[in-house]
Fold this protein.
Amino acid sequence: MTRILLVEDDDETAHEIVAEMVDRGFQVERAATGSVGLERARADEHDVLVVDRLLPEIDGLTIVETLRREQVRTPVLVLSALGGVDDRVRGLRSGGDDYLAKPFALVELVARVEALLRRPSDTRETQLRIGPLELDLIDRTAHRGNRQIDLLPRECRLLEYMMRREGQMVTRAMLFEDVWNYRFVPDSNLVDVHMGRLRHKVDAPGEAPMIHSLRGAGFVLRAPD
Amino acid sequence: MRLTEFARSTTFRWAIAIAGAFAVGILILFVFVYWQTTAYMDNRVDSLIVGELTSITAAPPEQRLSLVENRLYSDPRRIKVAGVFAADGRRVAGNVEDRPVGLPPDARPRDIEIVRTDPQGREVQPIRAVAATLPDGELLVIGRSIDELGEIAAIIKRALLLGILPASAIAITAGILLSLRAQRRLEAVLQTVRRIVAGNLRERLPVRGSDPFDQLALIVNGMLDEIEGLIRDLSGVGDDIAHEVRTPLTRVRATLERGRENAATLEELRTIADRAISGLDKSLAIVTALLRIAEIEHGRRLAGFGEVELADVIHEVAELYDPVAEDRHVHLDVEAIDTVSVRGDHDLLFEAVANLVDNAIKFTPADGRVELRLLRQADSIVIRISDTGPGISEAEREVVTRRFYRSDKSRLTPGVGLGLSLVAAITKLHGFRLTIAAGPGCVIEIIAPQA
């Protein structure tokens, strides 16, 4: 079972996060202060740490820095009410693996934790294959069964990202940050439009769908049943 | 201000220091004058006595003694000295009692002391003298009293004493007056600053002329104008936030309240919860956008500046929005000149252009056209976004970049109304200009000056 350590001082927030995580089948331990959190994290028994940035006693970034100095390599998701670009950069530089600004949708948090649990497949691989879907990163060509799929460069990047995270929920914000490298979220349905294009090409009429929308959350690519 | 306080004040110390420097200057001047004068006198005495020595030596032997006697004849101030001594040291003529010691007959002037003897009596006198051996073996001594030099030195010393006291007094008085004036101005400034610190931001420092003090006051006043403007903006923003965030929150509250009473099924409750969440997201988006504008306006992003290829930015934005435009049946047309780089933050410039393109596509009806251009104009680089939408009326153009302002026509289009304010903040941070003009629809330009 996946064990998660949540270091969060606000009781209500912590309660909701723990409940959501438990519903998703994670085993969650919560620490309410920085020092307890650091102590528990040192035990190195967790698969993912979710650490709030502003904590009593020891702040979140210090915890991450201390752990990294002590060679504790558990992946860390930093939560913060500070949403500035610089804050994010600082959060990642201190050793955090991902940074999520408050307020966030619980489903976004879950998606990020899952992403940390399942780091993407070997990035040196140039041939990706999920069920009938194949993507050659050198030729930039894709096939579904015998059908060739013509992809624009941006669609190729998007498909690669999805295929490396097979069966894993990816949110709009993750796509925007990782595929397009942008930190601002425009208020139009940009990501949906791009994903719609890709889906149109991957899932031809009559074929079992591989790219699925998760209502209010994001997208997932999985092999057809 | 009390006197002790004044004595401790920096300005007073400066006054004293200036007076001191003044006195030292005067002293140096007098020393110089003294040195120059005595050197001149020495020179003059030397050339006088050497000249006389030469002329007497050159005179026929029978005239020499009378020349010596003539020389001494009229000398009421008793400054001339002359003597002729036989080879055995005996005095032949003149007013020098003994053959002077330490005066070799080499025609070079020296300072010596002799005993002077004449009808007025004997007197030890320091003189400047030269000596030469005459052709008949006698020694000729010509001299001149240097008491005169001592007198000049005394005059100069007296002048110095008489001069330095009033000069110092004047310097100190002037220093005190000047420092008092500066002190008064400083006091006036301090009073004003205290009032400003106490919260009266309307106050400005007094400006009288154009001395450095006034220039400083002008700069501080400019700074105060800027601060006052910022605070006015900020309080305006506060009102805007209150309004813009309250509106969706009120809606959320009403939705939840009615939903709690009326929802009969879980499905209905879910719909209500979804509406509430989207309302909250909208409120939060406003706060996030505002913080972001504040972050950019405060210039904290200057650290991310580098060389940015504008053509790349244009093409990236086009790539991102191409499918969106296509979905809305809007033709997105892109043309960019090559290799134009500016100093800036790539991500922010991307964000600005993306925002403008996003807006243009949003406001352009189906079968319309959005043009994205990167062009060179005279001495600037222009990013132009034009559309065939409803455009922005002249009256609205000014206010449109203000936070939250949204053209009435766009009330039905989603968006929090901060896009243009964000673009304005980004262009300002880069030192670019943002212009909004009427075209067939709306023409917005970001103008980057090029050296």
The interface with chain A takes residues 274, 277, 280, 284-285, 288, 291-292, 295, 300-301, 303, 319-321, 323-324, 327, 347, 350-351, 354-355, 358, 362, 414-416 of chain B (CB under 8 Å). Chain B has three domains: 1-200, 212-297, 302-449.
